[in-house]
C-alpha cells in the first residue's frame, strides 16, 4: 500500500504534464494551420522560420511524451 501511495503524486504529475504537452501541440498546430496558404498547405516564405520552430518544438514535445510513457511501465 505504501508503495502505491508513494507513486500516486508522481502519476498525477505525469498526467498533468502530458495534458499540458498535448495542449501545447494543439496550439502550435492551430497556429501553423492558420499561416498556411489556402488549400495548398504551403507555408509562406515570411513564416518559414516560425513554422520550422513550431515543428521543432512539436518534435521535442513528442519525444518528452514518449519518455513520460516509458516511465509509467
Architecture overview:
The model has no long low-confidence stretch (mean pLDDT 82). This protein starts with a helix and ends with a helix. It is elongated and about 45 Å long. With 73 residues, it is mainly α. Helix 1 packs antiparallel against helix 2. The chain contains two helices and no strands.
Draw up the topology in text.
Blueprint: H1 2-34, H2 48-71
Helix pairs in contact: 1-2
Keywords:
single chain, 73 residues, mainly alpha, 2 helices, 0% strand
Q: Span from first to last CA?
A: 18 Å
In terms of structural class, how would the helical and strand content be classed?
mainly alpha
The percent of residues in helical segments reads over 70%
Q: Compute the number of strand runs.
A: 0
**Strand content range:** under 5%
Q: What is the average per-residue confidence, as pLDDT, rounded to a whole number?
A: 82
Radius of gyration based on Cα positions: 17 Å
Q: Which ranges are low-confidence, i.e. pLDDT below 50, for 5 or more consecutive residues?
A: none
Whole-number count of domains: 1
Q: What order do the SSEs take from the amino end to the carboxyl end, as H and E?
A: HH
Largest sheet: number of strands, sense, barrel closure: none
Q: Number of DSSP helices?
A: 2
**Global outline:** elongated
Amino acid at each position: 500500500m505504501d508503495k502505491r501511495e508513494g507513486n500516486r503524486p508522481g502519476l498525477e504529475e505525469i498526467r498533468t504534464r502530458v495534458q499540458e504537452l498535448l495542449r501545447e501541440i494543439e496550439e502550435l498546430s492551430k497556429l501553423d494551420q492558420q499561416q498556411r496558404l489556402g488549400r495548398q498547405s504551403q507555408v509562406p516564405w515570411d513564416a518559414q522560420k516560425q513554422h520550422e520552430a513550431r515543428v521543432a518544438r512539436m518534435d521535442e514535445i513528442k519525444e518528452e511524451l514518449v519518455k513520460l510513457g516509458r516511465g509509467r511501465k
